[in-house]
Design a protein that fits this description.
Blueprint: H1 2-7, H2 23-42, H3 50-54, H4 73-96, H5 106-135, H6 138-168, H7 174-202, H8 207-232
Helix pairs in contact: 2-4, 4-5, 4-6, 5-6, 6-7
Length: 233
């Protein structure tokens, strides 16, 4: 009976290797979804400011300069979720394009990505506060700083959908998902820069200082990052 059964067996199809479906990635997705649920449970304003951000409303509004809202527990949770999700997208993109160093494991690279994002945001926060205090335009840079945090939060909300499609769906090719994620980040980044232009213009600040600021803290970091990753590929 065994010989008869073996006689009719045939080789099965090889399961396609999917590098973006490690168990630890699923845990991070579930953790992020759980944290989103906690924020949504405790407050109804998880999407607070979306309309104002995309429609350029609230610029030069005194309420937009209340930086105290950045240091609440709810705001801290939102920022943490944003950094975790964006770090995971950075890892996924690096893994897909094969630019992760061989000596660095997947989860280690993700942790490094999250640390880099947190360090970059903290440094920009410090620079904005110091520049605002030194130039006497504290309100201007505080308002722009709030826009930066909104950029990360809204980007993470949209990128989270992209990550779910990458991890659980085969409807869209991976390349298309990464392109969509890059378009989301580029679009929101452009909106952030336009908001900065509007803030400077409405407060009658010289465009020379705006250009200087953009070159030092916006264009230069992006150029260095592109150059670095281009060298890896």
């Amino acid at each position: 009976a065994k010989a008869s059964l073996v006689k009719h067996l045939r080789a099965g199809d090889e399961i396609t290797f999917r590098p973006l479906h490690d168990d630890w990635i699923i845990l991070i997705i579930l953790f992020s979804a759980f944290m989103f649920a906690i924020v949504r449970k405790s407050s109804d304003n998880i999407f607070h400011g979306v309309k104002r951000f995309f429609l350029f409303r609230g610029v030069n509004n005194p309420l937009s300069r209340d930086i105290g809202g950045l240091f609440t527990l709810e705001s801290t949770i939102k920022n943490l979720i944003s950094f975790v999700i964006l770090g995971l997208f950075g890892y996924s993109a690096a893994s897909y394009h094969g630019i992760i160093p061989s000596l660095t494991g997947g989860i280690i690279f993700w942790i490094i990505s999250v640390i880099i994002i947190i360090a970059a945001v903290s440094l920009r926060h410090l620079v904005c506060m110091v520049t605002g205090a030194a130039s006497g335009e504290r309100d201007l840079f505080t308002e722009y700083l709030l826009g930066i945090y909104q950029f990360y939060r809204f980007s993470a909300l949209l990128i989270f959908v992209v990550i779910i499609l990458i991890s659980y769906s085969t409807i869209f090719p991976l390349e298309s998902c990464f392109i969509a994620g890059a378009i989301v980040l580029a679009t929101l980044y452009l909106i952030r820069v336009i908001r900065l232009f509007i803030i400077f213009i409405n407060r009658n600040i010289s465009l020379f200082y705006l250009i200087l600021y953009l070159c030092a803290l916006e264009i230069l970091p992006v150029a260095i990052s592109v150059k670095y990753f281009s060298g890896l590929t």
